[in-house]
Amino acid sequence: MSSASTPDFAFPVAARYAGMASSPLKDIFSLAARPDVVSFAGGIPDPSLFALGDIAECYDWVLRERGTRALQYGVSEGEAELREQAARRLSRELPTDASQIRVTSGSQEGLFVAAEALIEPGDVVLVESPTYLAAVQAFAVHGARMVGVETDDGGVLPDALDAAIRAHHPRLVYLIPTFQNPTGRSMSAQRRAQVADVLRRHDVPLIEDDPYGELSFDGERFAPIASEPGMSSRTLLMKSMSKLMSPGVRIGWIRAEGPILDTLAVAKAAISMQSSVVDQLTVARYLETKDLDAHVATVIEVYRERRDAMAQALTGRLPEGAHLTRPQGGMFLWAALGEGWDAQDLLADAVSAGVAYLPGWSFFAEDADRSTMRLSFVTHSPEVIADGVGRLGEVIARRG
Amino acid sequence: MSSASTPDFAFPVAARYAGMASSPLKDIFSLAARPDVVSFAGGIPDPSLFALGDIAECYDWVLRERGTRALQYGVSEGEAELREQAARRLSRELPTDASQIRVTSGSQEGLFVAAEALIEPGDVVLVESPTYLAAVQAFAVHGARMVGVETDDGGVLPDALDAAIRAHHPRLVYLIPTFQNPTGRSMSAQRRAQVADVLRRHDVPLIEDDPYGELSFDGERFAPIASEPGMSSRTLLMKSMSKLMSPGVRIGWIRAEGPILDTLAVAKAAISMQSSVVDQLTVARYLETKDLDAHVATVIEVYRERRDAMAQALTGRLPEGAHLTRPQGGMFLWAALGEGWDAQDLLADAVSAGVAYLPGWSFFAEDADRSTMRLSFVTHSPEVIADGVGRLGEVIARRG
């Protein structure tokens, strides 16, 4: 994407971005964007499911009824209406006041704001192994060292977390307890209580990232770890409208308690002053006047069917000894092909055969299982999924 | 703004934000927001001048004609249409290709992205004395030490810049050459050439911040320093739609050349993934189909009249020996009351008398002239300006 001309001057690049001029994932996404490739690589909502009419109506209302305010400077904390709506929605899981909400331009900015506010160079951040790549980046550019904590199909292992805290004295722990990216796994209520107990005991703060929790396929809702006794004051709970309403609108929020709220607002101001007031007021209007739950219910129907289609298509197509997660919600399946397989090596053949996925190595802070792959089931119809998985199965069979 | 409850847990705050829980400016803005106070404190465009109808039409078009794309994930570099329009507009001053544009969520994010990409802890950043406060903050949280360079009414002094570069070996120089915030001053073509010569000679990169350049009251347009020979590859040129179209929409861009463009995109992705696609496509549509120059021309008419009203009202109302800038554009007048005056001390009396301004000390990296104040002339009508300045004059007279 850089200019064709070779400049006569080389800008000094900060060490935090040295060698990061091109990300390997970007190259994968470019490959996956080829029109002849069925891509399971991205976590891209199906645009045909967007509530476009409702959202357009809300933009129209905001510009007609709140126009001059929407176009004017706002406040770093976020617009009052949106914070009210966010608090109302969150209060179904955890009593929340609007004053405890900080609006961010999507969850990515939320993670970055939190990292700005909390992390010193050299700090250790404990993460699930594997965990969400872009969160790792937001922490890493602040000089944090990520240490992965062992997980099973029920999420992070409390004993492993306890041992890692003792060994590494982390600044914070970052978890995605529900329909995790990349694995699709969720932590049970019991596991959450155990994890909360460990965190409380060691007085270690938690960043709880929950962009997928409402995409539950079987009606089961998991209360956030922040709602465990004593945990609400120790947790920055991150929410996003990207997976529920629209990723293009870039609106999310952080729930927190106490003085850290002020630091979050100062950090947000330093980073971007405030989020788009037009977008904030539109999302507030949407949450106030439209039925997000009903919309999410229609999305879930479709995603459930696609998860089933992908799980079924994969049956018998993975190598013997492979492990596949069985997510009850969210957007991702996670496959470990097992000993001797390298999903990154396999990708060139897969793309040649017309199918793409995200190699799993990039989701590990350390000791990557290179046999893993993340497969998003939300973007394509069951037919396209079956076709793509079929192609993947052939590539695996040829290599097997 | 923090929660009323006292939490049982104190989050660790990173040193970069230690002691920054509440900014003194925030308190001033709260005071200034009192309905009985005529505030010249903020740099707030007059909302009655927004091209609300045109902007609403563009949002409507984007949601009708590009709806699913506007609501979907975009790319960190920015949407192609917006980069095209930005390049077309910039090319009037400096030949620019769309590939040389990186979209940001307003200039503040532009400054933060640039700081992320370039600054190492301990680096020196040379700035005008005085300079824009929020830029200083974006650099400071990256561990930079700001060193102010002497200025006169023609901007930064080339010899002083040369000496400061020799003395401090700065990572970069940050300048606002046109209608500067906070002083309203502009650098002449000759001064720009001299400054460019110094920067080229020492091979020091420049961040050129230009949010006000198009708000020229007498038709004179200043070419950016980036357009001086050899400077385009050494400069990150920052533009913003906040002062021309709307601050609430939060769209700006950086122009750069060469490999740093890739680093800027990676940093932007780490910070916020991408800017609101809805807002980006709307601004692109606005620039493509509406006449921003004609809109700016109507805004300039009003601002010029207000600058004149404020300059006239201040005549004879400042203490003997005071110095007042005579900006040819932009949003701010800058007054130095002179020896023995402290504008921060004076503020309480001013607010009691129903008028507010921004004390100038906060705009200095070091050796603040505490007798200075920034007065924005854009928010109020000439009548309200005359009234507010009259009140300020009485406060000064009482103290004099």
From TrEMBL, chains A, B:
Keywords: Aminotransferase, Pyridoxal phosphate, Transferase. The keyword Iron-sulfur does not apply. One of its GO terms (molecular function) is transaminase activity. Gene3D superfamilies: Aspartate Aminotransferase, domain 1, Type I PLP-dependent aspartate aminotransferase-like (Major domain). Residues 67-391 form the Aminotransferase class I/classII large domain. CDD domains: AAT_like. Its cofactor is pyridoxal 5'-phosphate. Pfam families: Aminotran_1_2 (PF00155). This is PLP-dependent aminotransferase family protein. It comes from Brachybacterium halotolerans.
